[in-house]
Amino acid sequence: ETGVTQSPTHLIKTRGQQVTLRCSSQSGHNTVSWYQQALGQGPQFIFQYYREEENGRGNFPPRFSGLQFPNYSSELNVNALELDDSALYLCASSLAGPGGYGYTFGSGTRLTVV
Amino acid sequence: DQQVKQNSPSLSVQEGRISILNCDYTNSMFDYFLWYKKYPAEGPTFLISISSIKDKNEDGRFTVFLNKSAKHLSLHIVPSQPGDSAVYFCAARGFGSSNTGKLIFGQGTTLQVKP
After folding, report:
1. CA pair distance B21, B89, nearest whole angstrom
2. ω before B115 within 30° of 0 (cis)?
3. Shortest alpha-carbon distance between residue A5 and chain B (Å)
4. Those residues with Cβ within 8 angstroms of residue A71's Cβ, 6 or more apart along the chain or in another chain
5. With contact defined as beta carbons under 8 Å apart, do A31 and A38 qualify?
6. pLDDT tens-place string over residues B22-67
């Protein structure tokens, strides 16, 4: 059973650029959530995708968007990058669908905006 | 507005002793509380959870206690082992969030277990 895989592991971008982060869910998991973890803080919920649709969103602006594909993999897109977007981005997948909490987290993508 | 707080950034205990990690919350509308453990360069790993209708849940060396009147929960690790050294996050799921997967995390407590 494979876990959650995120790519890339590290990324450096310039302010104003756009970035796409990728996540492969654990085998059979159909729900994906994305979290942002700033340095010294706990993860903050960005949004969740279930059956290829966003079904929950945290306090993040519209320039944070996502996709879920038929194979349940997912992308997080961030437009017009700001310095404060520098963080660890975590993807988590679940088999239970909405309502489950037994998420498996990936190791994250470390994004640095300069 | 930090709804879930872990006020101790770090904790150091001796191997074999008890580790107690604390978490406070301000919102009564949480239905589940969870603890995650995170090693460097890895994602958080689910450790143990407790429903808001319970006051204790035990799993091996790990026990979580929930005091609803005080809006406080704690994670007890007995006996502590050096491999338990990690960052521990308390998280809560709100009623009505069951369909969105939203968890609210605390800031984390770094536990160091000394041999």
Report:
1. 9
2. no
3. 10
4. none
5. no
6. 999 997 788 889 999 999 888 999 999 999 999 999 999 999 999 9
pLDDT by residue (tens digit) across A62-73? 999 999 998 889
Are A102 and B46 an interchain contact pair (Cβ–Cβ within 8 Å)?
A: yes
Which helix (H) or strand (E) segment is A46 a member of?
Answer: strand A44-50
* Encoded tokens for A22: 């990728």
Compute the distance between CA of residue B91 and CA of residue B23 in angstroms, rounded to an integer.
9
Strand A104-105 and strand A5-7: the pairing is: unpaired
Q: What are phi and psi of A84, to 5 degrees?
A: -70, -10
Cα–Cα distance for residue pair A64/B64, rounded to 1 Å: 35
The encoded tokens of residue A25 equal: 């869910």
Under an 8 A CB cutoff, do B103 and A90 touch? no
CB-count burial class (<10 Å; 0-12, 13-18, 19+) for B37: buried
Q: Taking Cα atoms as reference points, which of A29, A26, A32 lies closest to residue A5? A: A26
Q: Report the alpha-carbon distance of residue A49 to residue A93 in Å, rounded.
A: 9
- The Cα–Cα gap between B73 and B68 comes to 8
Q: What is the rounded distance in angstroms from the CA atom of residue B108 to the CA atom of residue A37?
A: 11
pLDDT for B100: 62
Q: State the nearest Cα–Cα gap between A36 and chain B, in angstroms.
A: 11
